[in-house]
Amino acid sequence: MAYDIDMIKKVYSQMADRVNKAREVVGKPLTLSEKILYSHLWDGETSSAFERGKDYVEFAPDRIACQDATAQMALLQFMQAGKKKVAVPTTVHCDHLIQAKMGAAIDLQAANKSSSEVFDFLESVSNKYGIGFWKPGAGIIHQVVLENYAFPGGMMIGTDSHTVNAGGLGMVAIGVGGADAVDVMAGMPWELKFPKLIGVKLTGSLSGWTAPKDVILKVAGILTVKGGTGAIIEYFGEGARSMSATGKGTICNMGAEVGATTSTFGYDDSMERYLKATNRADVAEAANAVREHLTGDDEVYANPGEYFDELIEINLSELRPHLNGPFTPDLATPISEMGAKAKEHDWPINVDWGLIGSCTNSSYEDLTRAASIAKQAVEKKVKAKSDFGINPGSEQIRYTAERDGLLQIFEDLDATVFTNACGPCIGQWDRSDRKGEEKNTIVHSFNRNFSKRADGNPNTHAFVGSPEMVAAIAISGRLDFDPTRDKLINEDGEEVMLDEPKGIELPTKGFAVEDAGYVSPTEDGSGVEVKVAEDSDRLQLLTPFEPWDGKNLTGAKLLIKAWGKCTTDHISMAGPWLRYRGHLDNISNNCLIGAVNAFNKKTNFVKNQLNGEYDGVPSVQREYKKAGIPTVVVGDHNYGEGSSREHAAMEPRHLGVKVVLVKSFARIHETNLKKQGMLGITFANEEDYELIQEDDTFNFIDLEEFAPDKQLTIEVVHADGSKDTIKANHTYNEPQIEWYRQGSALNLIKKQNAA
């Protein structure tokens, strides 16, 4: 029986009325995305049609999921909200704080020792506030959610950008910052700008070496890392129906890399099969009763150009395997062209590691397809030329894969089976084969491949592919290996070829597990004590941010003008810094250390205008804060793309940065800045970015008139006394301006709860 089945049945019981009312108000057939959005309005049935990409709308999500790195700050904030229990079903998953090094058993034991303080905090705070807790080793948050909580037609939010994975079961699942999650935990509405809609029509069917991963690799190449910003991607067509639910999850998961609000698929037979296989026949039965409302209207899919803001068509029968990268997930290259492209760009051809897993590709089907390649290598006497690592998606996946002999196949190829956790995908990897900053290549089935992402080395060229393609390339040891045409030399000196991969959608013997790793909360948590040691360097109770004084901001100094790509990894790195995710002051020592200074093209090396000397970004900013001087961060396009981590907003706020002025924002990061009481604005004229000089001072001369749809005027004073006056746009509505006035959204919640 499913978790929270009564909640799911309630959603379905009101869906028909809400969808029919929305169709009547909108005056046309509805996409699946619209059906889910309109059926989850905070006020119930709609009385007006919302304008895509413009109207801010309040929603009532069905559930929340948090991973251990982001849950710390989210729950530290929730503890200040004055609530006794979370208002909607919520779970915490311990998957980020486990470093991959020696293998599953040893690594998990090491994590439980090194991060016991954090795990104990998360378990106790979960127990106190009615939150389900998944222990370290239970699995990667998004795979566990897909196996246990996701349901067709539902809406969920999660404090991780890859929450969108649940779209594989027909949800609208959206990654958010912790402050957004706190709103919903506290029983408040959740606000989102009504998304635009991108339709992806899939025809034909996948075959041979082409996998669901190749669909999103292709889409990423089409849309780029910012092409999906502010939009939901909805997949449909015969090709969509031909894929497994976990394959759909893979596609939705990596949709985060094109900036999409989320991605989703309509309910179909593959989802029904998956629900039943994961012991949720009751959900399947309930979904079948409202099946017509769990997919887009027929007219929409018959004439998609009339109902979507943008339309992409992909023939799966013609799609070929891809590798994306290096350094960005949207640089898409068909595997057949990789050799020539690698030679042209001088990418290292020899592959050091092949890594399979992460929340994107760690399902049973993924492991079977990769194992079918590994098994051939063993049988054909071909030794893997690259090191090989595997991260199963959950304890249920691991246990079942071990029972069915899949893990033994990988071990026969000398692969290392790591813990059921994120591991190298988020930089939790103690890579012993290389030290320093040597130029090298790795291939993986993850979703993100930014510089330094996996191992901290800026010269590691990481390429993203399907699990089966990663397996083939790792066996060959070469980036230019195309298994559809290239041969390998085995131990006997014979030429052999790898046959096409074969996968099993769902285990024929069913899923099995002895201990899934779930701890349910006590019914009454009022007597549970949450301890945070005063001298802890891992956890720190929060001090509320100061409210705005209502005056114009003058005399603000430039902290850094970031050049080029500046993701949340650049603003607040993961890897070894994950240990401080619950301690705002300590983790602020990584604030913007990965951002490239536009004036010297160096990282973590900026000018201190107080003394003219250069130092690390956090050090310089702490000097400004000590002197009571406000500061401004300037950035390029799609600033803050990548992870949902709100630390990238909280750290500069904590250190005294007042404004982030950029060419454009990634959606989640812009919201995080607003929630934390920051001023996140964009150049009205992008070329004004070029006017900003290293010694500039900023005067915001009409901030006192801060209002929706009203530009802000900034006087930029240069070192020689000359001035430029520029305009900045913003997307704050009146409630968001109130967050700014109060110092943060959390301050406003506390004020309302105290009233």
Explain what this protein looks like in three dimensions.
Its cofactor is [4Fe-4S] cluster. Its EC number is 4.2.1.3. One of its GO terms (molecular function) is aconitate hydratase activity. This protein has 25 helices and 30 strands. The longest helix has 22 residues, at about 5-25. About 60% of the residues are buried. The radius of gyration is 25 Å and the shape is globular. The mean pLDDT is about 95. With about 750 residues, the protein is α/β, with parallel strands linked by helices. The strands form eight sheets. The chain has a seven-stranded mixed barrel with strand order 22-25-26-27-30-29-28. A six-stranded mixed sheet has the order 6-5-2-3-4-21, with helices on both faces. Helix content is about 30%, strand content about 15%. Helix 3 (about 70-80) packs across helix 5 (about 115-130), helix 3 crosses helix 7 (about 180-185) and helix 24 packs across helix 25 (about 745-755).
